[in-house]
């Protein structure tokens, strides 16, 4: 029983934690994305970064793409180039996984973010919407 009570008093050690991207960020095509993380001494020294999406509205059968293999934990950051998202479906549910080099263990996972064609996923409130806008035959915008 003494051993058990000693365990309760010891601090919990957390492994890798993704600190960026944050929940619900938007990642536009043509832009880089900074991934940052924190780690502890017991975490593996080298990891892989994998982009995943399990959101059925974006990828019904799931999606994963290796971003970079062999990233050192001490770097604590990686800038993902725009070419990584080229050809992806715009939509919600994308996450960055920090994965062991053998690919067997997810060590940490970012919150979900949305990949967007610039301007296509702008969040607006209902108060901002007044009336639908359409183009007339001359190509100018008119309110309906």
Automatic annotation (TrEMBL):
Lineage: Eukaryota, Fungi, Dikarya, Basidiomycota, Pucciniomycotina
Species in which this protein is naturally found: Austropuccinia psidii MF-1
Record bears the keyword Transcription: no
PANTHER family, alphabetized: SERINE/THREONINE-RICH PROTEIN ADG2-RELATED, SERINE_THREONINE-RICH PROTEIN ADG2
Protein name: Yeast cell wall synthesis Kre9/Knh1-like N-terminal domain-containing protein
Signal peptide: none
Protein's UniProt keywords contain Signal: yes
Residues covered by the Yeast cell wall synthesis Kre9/Knh1-like N-terminal domain: 20-115
Entry keywords, A to Z: Signal
A matching Pfam family: Kre9_KNH
């Amino acid at each position: 029983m003494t051993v058990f009570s000693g365990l309760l008093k010891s601090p919990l050690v957390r492994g890798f934690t993704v600190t960026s991207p944050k929940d619900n960020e938007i990642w536009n095509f043509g832009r880089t994305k900074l991934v940052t993380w924190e780690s502890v001494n017991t975490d593996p020294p080298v990891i892989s970064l994998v982009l995943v999406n399990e959101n059925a509205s974006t990828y019904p059968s799931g999606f994963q793409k290796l971003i970079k293999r062999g990233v050192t934990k001490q770097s604590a950051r990686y800038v993902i180039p725009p070419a990584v998202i080229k050809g992806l479906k715009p939509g919600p549910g994308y996450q960055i996984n920090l994965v062991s080099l053998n690919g067997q263990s997810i060590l940490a996972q970012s919150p979900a973010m949305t990949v967007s064609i610039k301007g296509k996923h702008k969040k607006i409130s209902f108060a901002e919407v007044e009336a639908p806008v359409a183009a007339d035959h001359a190509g100018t915008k008119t309110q309906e």
